[in-house]
């Protein structure tokens, strides 16, 4: 039993597998940093040769900045040396066991590219798209190798926002998901599995909900764009750097998330109704969420977790005060 439990560590000690990135825009360059920083040899390809060369210079600059904050292990030159620009797509795909597509957000473009990736890669290579919105079924359903295709959508930039949404299609093989999850985890990412296919996955569904309301508040004369940004950057965003929305609700109200839903749920329902929404927080839904939240935040330890949240916020505030210029200039404060 002990030998079996130790096996993953022995596997992780092998040299990280070669990775290919197709598309050298900002996301492609950022993915190159993620994988090279984790020890992977990275082949970066773009149909625009000038863009690929520019991306390499950008990667070098970003790595130097990351190293200045202690976010690169080892020598920057060594990390950069793991990234090469491949003028030919076939050259980029050679030996790659994982391909991260980062081209334009177009179903047709992705459909054509994935057909080529399917033809030109080994049968065990994982083919992942960085698309922000498009389900995998809309560009890979007709491929012979569709079982090895899925969406891996990052936050931007992924070398600082490690969440990676794994959004498989119904035809994506379980081993494809497992291999993608293992590779991303070993590279320092935080994989989150999306259940079912939906436009926008999780990240952009949440972001879109906030943006829709932000636009409405400006339209209705409730707040200026600058003040909306200020409420998020000086308020909600600081808290969300430590906690997600459910954990926030749990710790914001004595009595936890169930009490929060009881007290504030009706008001949130009225706000939603103003926008034509009817998505009630039913008792069974609240109970299901609360059960999950209490696995990591037991109700009997509520005060302790509130204190821990506050200490985390204090550390963030200390960092802001230590380098105030770094945290100003994005939002008007007068």
Automatic annotation (TrEMBL):
It comes from the Bacteria. Its EC number is 1.1.1.35. InterPro entries: 3-OHacyl-CoA_DH_CS (IPR006180), 3-OHacyl-CoA_DH_NAD-bd (IPR006176), 3HC_DH_C (IPR006108), 6-PGluconate_DH-like_C_sf (IPR008927), 6PGD_dom2 (IPR013328), NAD(P)-bd_dom_sf (IPR036291). GO terms for molecular function: (3S)-3-hydroxyacyl-CoA dehydrogenase (NAD+) activity. Residues 19-194 form the 3-hydroxyacyl-CoA dehydrogenase NAD binding domain. Pathway: Lipid metabolism; butanoate metabolism. Keywords: Oxidoreductase. PROSITE patterns: 3HCDH. Belongs to the 3-hydroxyacyl-CoA dehydrogenase family. This is 3-hydroxyacyl-CoA dehydrogenase. It comes from Actinomadura alba.
